[in-house]
Fold:
Amino acid sequence: MQPQNSREIRLKHRAVGLPSASDFELTETPVPTPHEGQVLVRNSYISVDPYMRGRMTEQKSYVPPFQIGEPLTGGAIGQVVASKSASFAPGDCVQSMYGWREWYACDAREVQKIDPTLGPIQSYLGALGMTGLTAYAGLLVIAQLKHGDRVFVSAASGAVGAIACQIAKAKGCYVVGSVGSEAKAAYLTQELGVDQAINYKTTDGLTNAVAAAFPDGIDVYFDNVGGAHLQAALANMRQFGRIAACGMIAQYNATEPLPGPNNLGNIIGLRLSIRGFLVGDHLGLHSQFLGDMARWHGEGKMKWRETISNGIESAPDAFIGLFKGEHIGKVLVRVGPDEAVK
Ligand code: NAP
Structure:
């Protein structure tokens, strides 16, 4: 039965440093009535992502800041409960950017249908969605990955990193991932078939550990972290190596400018390419990506894990956990039923 109210998470304060639960506020608002051309959707899963941290500041960026007192937004998968659009019917499974809330009504053009028969619906927020596409575009387009490349991936057991490792393995590469725990290292080597894992929290010097894992150097570095990881990669790149700059999570909570790598000169001597990218510029690859993912999955070369918390009230902690390395795979919050709402 449809409740009267929907719960949502709003931004209470602009976070300073590592966000805390008190930066967020759980509020209730009436479940809206859809107008002509709109759909009413009950969310099943919402995504929490590191890039949202930047939107909690006032900094100018490629996405506008979240507003204090407003519900946060982000990727979400849900089911149409009522439709005043000819394009959607109750029970349709849809994807939107109306995350961090249980229910919403919006213009039908703001939601996209997904096919719930292709995989669990929440995988469209992770491996089969923007997360997987980020790894795919970053390696194949930005880093121009080739068979046999020696590939280093940071935050390698995370949502993007674990897919990047497996794409590189599927392409016949030697792959080493960096992670923050022994359990994550075992996941990479024992479950995902990664050649070696480096636990950067226990290693005695990341640059030396990377050198030991790459005696002949790195062809491709997929950078999710920046900082000391970028420094260690730069120290060990081969000539004409390529770096896909995907994210710099090591600095997202910084309260003052952090020192940069002190070996940028290697870019010149080694004739390196470093290219940043945003997944949103590569949406045209989506059907090719899904085709490859289905094939790799069928061949046993592509697996994924999700860390799922329950209830909209758990979303702030799930988000904060991204910066503590508390999860393996894609972090999601289940906020409603998986099955179509009757
Ligand atoms: P994720 O890897 O699932 O979660 C973040 C992971 O980063 C944590 O589990 C933790 O793993 C690691 N981490 C956190 N703080 C760290 C620190 N200070 N130093 C080193 N590692 C740290 O998140 P994701 O969604 O896959 O995102 C990964 C990166 O890709 C992020 O930088 C994100 O901003 C970026 N991204 C970019 C795009 C794009 O379009 N360019 C799209 C999606 C994501 P450990 O325990 O292993 O440290």
